[in-house]
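Q: What changes when nicotinamide-adenine-dinucleotide is included in the input?
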Amino acid sequence: MKTITIAKGDGIGPEIMDATLQILNAAGAQLNYEEIEVGEKVYLSGNTSGISDESWDTIRRNKIFLKAPITTPQGGGYKSLNVTTRKFLGLFSNVRPCKSYHPFVATKHPVMDMVIIRENEEDLYAGIEHQQTDEVVQCLKLISRPGCEKIVRYAFEYARVNNRKKVTCFTKDNIMKQTDGLFHQVFDEIAKEYPEIENEHWIIDIGAAKMADQPEVFDVIVMPNLYGDILSDIAAQISGSVGMAGSSNIGESCAMFEAIHGSAPRRAGQNLANPSGLINGAILMLKHIGQGEVAAKIENAWLKTIEEGYHTYDIYQEGISVEKLGTKEFAQKIIQNLGELPSTLKAITDVKNETIKILPYQRKPNKEKTLVGVDLFVHWNGLDVNNLAEKINTKINSDIELSMITNRGIKVWPNGFEETFCTDHWRCRFKSKSQSMKNSEIIELLNTMLVSHLDIIKTENLYHFDGKQAYSMGQGQ
Ligand code: NAD
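A: The predicted holo structure follows.
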């Protein structure tokens, strides 16, 4: 018997969780449940994180968490519990299988069967945002080597364990050469360790277009957090319904399983919701904890129910469906079908106990890091950038030169275009002529700017790592 933590959540959450637990119990899952309260009630009681300290203790003790969707109240500074849980518990990998069930669930993509593996902890979801000037706000995109190595290795291990043939990587590294560039570089490095699995990289924009048009050409796709968030919802939707897909969030010691959809408050309390997303989340959980046989039994009964045409309202179709069922009745049909196999849809015959272990990250030896310059970001309301350059240039010492000024990334000095639209947010790039700068020189530089009444809002150092430039050029430079 394995004790897991469950949370029934908000909206349709309690109904789909009850249906899922009934199926788990009827199928003989070896589980005990410890229930915690998370979500709306907890938020509205004044806890902005939506979860109490005792509930964290329960989750950390049991390690496995099956969670129904929750409602994050609008406004009021409430933090998304999903994002917090993933990050607090180090659940670095979000796995979302997206499959179509043609001809029983309407879809334009009858042979789609892919898995999106989304990095879950970093990228723009670090949530580090600032207003810097009247006109400009910023969000920091953080990508780490450990983050990339863990998720890419997970994707290849997932492919190996599940007999998947290809892993595709989506990034936008033609634009973000440092951040997405690192993700792509790590993908290429790790792919070499799995010669039996095909690998490829697509630029995300055309990759996403291809995925929406011909998802059958993809198998496993791995990508950074934001792209994965967006594309996995699209993939679930085009497979038939957002109500169908489950997902797992896997860390080194804990894991959380859920439906990909939200709490659908308008459908709550009416016995209407499709419990399939949470059921599929529970199937992923059973495989993860070594109860693969029960997982296969439930999945086959669920597939049989779908192909018999017993459907909830969201996938009901005249001519294909036999009967429109409520949440409870749909669960009962699945229970009746336990032990049966689907006849048209592919039955699950090879039992998978999918415990994927990723070795802890080994820190690499430090590279030689040389400070070669600094970007000073200035809040300045002037219009003619030559005035700004003049103000700066008269004051700096002989080894440091102002090499360019950009506005929202595009070079506007020297030799800018009159047509370029400028805001009140300027980046002034200073370089050391001798290719080596001291931190104390940055402080001197800041002092000189202060004397000139320039409003410095941020500094960003420019480095070479092992002699290689490790910052982007200005656009148009
Ligand atoms: P949603 O996924 O709840 O609903 C989107 C649409 O899909 C609605 O039309 C809904 O009726 C339908 N739908 C979703 N699940 C269904 C199911 N199981 N059966 C039948 N129809 C289903 O997304 P939303 O409306 O944007 O968000 C509602 C709330 O859910 C918000 O408070 C949001 O913060 C929260 N949310 C929670 C999670 C989570 O806990 N994992 C994820 C996403 C959204």
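Observations recorded in class: Residues 12, 69-72, 82, 242-243, 258, 261-267, 273-274, 277, 314 surround nicotinamide-adenine-dinucleotide (CB under 6 Å).
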